[in-house]
Amino acid sequence: QVQLVESGGGLVQAGGSLKLSCAASANIFRINSMAWYRQAPGKQREYVAQVSRGGITNYVDSVKGRFTITRDNAKNTLYLQMNSLKPEDTAVYYCNAVPAKSSWGQGTQVTVSS
User: Fold this and answer.
1) What is the phi/psi pair of residue 86, to 5°?
2) CB-based contacts of 105: which residues, under 8 Å, 6+ apart?
3) Is the model's pLDDT at 1 over the cut of 90?
4) Which of 33, 78, 83, 87 has CB atoms 3.0–4.6 Å from 22's, for a disulfide?
């Protein structure tokens, strides 16, 4: 069974920072690259960043240089450090495997005010 629990979202002013966490079940975390996705109001869910089991990362162009994805394999936990946040980063953020499994967590809301 896949379990994904995201946390750490909130309301922040533009230019601020947040760190998201995702606690994942071992059966998904240990064998997969993991990623953060986000869904803004009225838009489709989109890929944000991913990290392989060995720590190789990839980012969508819009967050490069501002977001950092990491994982703690001992804790089955995924992180997303978000700096220099912009209003366009406002969305519900989700974690999942790469490719994504059909089961999603509840997500965590990130709201960036201008």
Assistant:
1) -120, 155
2) 3, 4, 5, 6, 22, 94, 95, 96
3) no
4) 78
The sign of the dihedral angle between the CA atoms of 38, 39, 45, 46 is negative
Q: Which two tokens stand for residue 17?
A: 């920072």
Question: Looking at this protein, which amino acid is placed at residue 58?
Answer: N
Neighbours of 104 (CB within 10 A): 16
Distance of alpha carbon 94 from alpha carbon 46, whole angstroms: 10
pLDDT in tens, 94-114: 999 999 999 999 999 999 999
Q: Helix and strand tally (H, E) in the chain?
A: 1, 10
Read off the tokens for 77.
């936990």
- Give the three-state DSSP class for 103: coil
Residue 11's identity, in one-letter code, is L
Q: pLDDT of 11-67, one tens digit each?
A: 999 999 999 999 999 888 888 899 999 999 999 999 999 999 999 999 999 999 999
Q: Are 4 and 87 a contacting pair, CB within 8 Å?
A: no
Tokens of 38: 């986000």
